[in-house]
Amino acid sequence: MSKPKFSGKDLISQLKTCPELAYDFTPEQVLEEINRFLPFIGYELNDLTGLDEKERPDFWGKREDSGKTFEIAGVVRQDMSKAGDGVIKLDSIKKRLGDSLEYVIVVPPVNEFHLIEFLCRDDNKWYKKVQEGGYMIWLCNPSEKGIWCPFGAPKDKKIFEFLKFKEMTNAYFNLPKRNEDIQSRHGTWKGEIDL
């Protein structure tokens, strides 16, 4: 008696849905790496005491080079499901600290699908807000001591020099179009693949 052929449908039924995080790091581990990275490339971290909780970034650094001052502030979130809260907090921080700083949301490395899904959710709501705010999204891997910037780009070339996958910086600026292409080929993501 022969066994039935193992089909693609059988394989898909055995796979779990794509995990939110590619790596499981806590926000504290990610923040620790950011607080190591920024001084490593010449940033002096600012003291955050005295700032109201609503207007306090998780990190804020400053660097001077050839008469220019570069400042960056950001928030760390556990994953893309919490990134919307990060955008809202960056809006409050930006109102307090001004437009001259660069702003970033930092999360541990996530599956690309979750990043795209977050940015394109609700008719590209978060994509528009992140782009309008001029915010960057960084994926930080503390164990590899690496940061990737898939959305936005730093004005400070010193930061840019130390990013991983530099050629992929700004990779998601065509997301609304990319999301339409993905949906037309594969349908809307429901956590499973239909064959």
Polypeptide structure, described:
Helix content is 39%, strand content 18%. With 195 residues, the protein is α/β, with parallel strands linked by helices. Strands 1-2-3-4-5-6 form a six-stranded mixed beta sheet. Helix 3 (83-97) packs parallel to helix 4. The longest helix has 22 residues, at 112-133. It starts with 7 loop residues before the first helix and ends in a 9-residue tail after the last helix. Mean pLDDT is 79; it is low at 14-18 and 172-195.
Shape: globular
Largest sheet: 6 strands, mixed
Number of helices: 6
Radius of gyration: 19 Å
Strand content: 15-25%
| Main sheet strand line-up | 1-2-3-4-5-6
Helix content: 25-40%
Protein structure class: alpha/beta
- Kindly report the average pLDDT value: 79
Instruction: Quote the distance from N terminus to C terminus.
Output: 27 Å
Total DSSP E strands: 6
What are the segments in which pLDDT stays under 50 over at least 5 consecutive residues?
14-18, 172-195
Q: Give the topology string: H per helix, E per strand.
A: HHEEEHEHEEHH
Would you summarize the structure shown here?
The protein has 195 residues and is an alpha/beta fold. It is built from six helices and six strands. Strands 1-2-3-4-5-6 form a six-stranded mixed β-sheet.
